[in-house]
Amino acid sequence: MDPIPSTVKFCSACGNKVVQQVPEGDNRLRAYCHGCNTVHYSNPRVIVGCLPVYEGKVLLCRRAIEPRLGLWTLPAGYMENGETTMQGAARETWEEARARVHKQQLYRVFDLPHIDQIYMFYLCFLEDESFSPGPESQEVALFSEGDIPWDEMAFPVICDALKEYFDDRKNSNFPVRVSSAHWRKPSPIHYSAPSQVSCA
Predict the structure, then answer these.
(1) In the structure, how many helices (H) and strands (E) does the chain have?
(2) Residue 111 CB: number of other CB atoms within 10 A?
(3) How many domains does one find in the chain?
(4) Same-domain check for residues 3 and 85
């Protein structure tokens, strides 16, 4: 894949307009400020989350924000500075589902180079049955395998992770998987009928 130019337009250090150029000693275009000689790097963003389980059921959140408003997902979000991926995943689960988790183990990593993101999900257990919607969730609920709203899932990678979990559970073996998630055109969203969204 060819390097993608930075979208930075102005220098955050001095406010001057930046240009796209290859800095000395580098090998790709960067946003460069001639005013203060600052190089602005645009690197992939890390999304961390949990696949929380309680008595054989999986905790899902119905999104209260865009993108994919009104559809179901695992609790996840952008990693913050100063925290580990495991801490970030637990924090996001608290923020979105007001749920506490334990026994976290890395379970699924997705590279999404087409949108400059990395998804990291931890398989874990809820400490108890106490959970409720956070500010970014309309609803939070536990689902057995047969009740998962597959046609109302927000993102294909969430479907992949859930399907793998239920397959792995049959053998009580949960290996860490890493793969690149290639771009899949989402089905059109009709907010009055979110069942039009497919995991296919």
Answers:
(1) 2, 11
(2) 14
(3) 2
(4) no
CATH of the domain at 87: 3.90.79.10
Give the domain extent around 23. 1-42
Say yes or no to pLDDT of 82 above 60: yes
Co-location of 58 and 147 in the same domain: yes
**Looking up tokens 């949960």, which residue turns up?**
174
102-159 residue pLDDT tens: 999 999 999 999 889 999 999 999 999 999 999 999 999 999 999 999 999 999 999 9
- What three-state secondary structure class fits 173? coil
* Dihedral angle over CA of 146, 150, 151, 153, nearest 10: 140
| CA dihedral of 60, 63, 64, 65, whole degrees rounded to 10 | 150
| SS3 at position 71 | coil
CA distance 159 to 75: 13
Shared-domain flag, residues 87 and 115: yes
Same domain, 35 and 120: no
Instruction: Say if residue 137 is in the same domain as residue 90.
Output: yes
Neighbours of 199 (CB within 10 A): 19
pTM of the model: 0.83
Alpha-carbon distances of 31 from 40, 110, 113, rounded to whole Å: 5, 27, 19
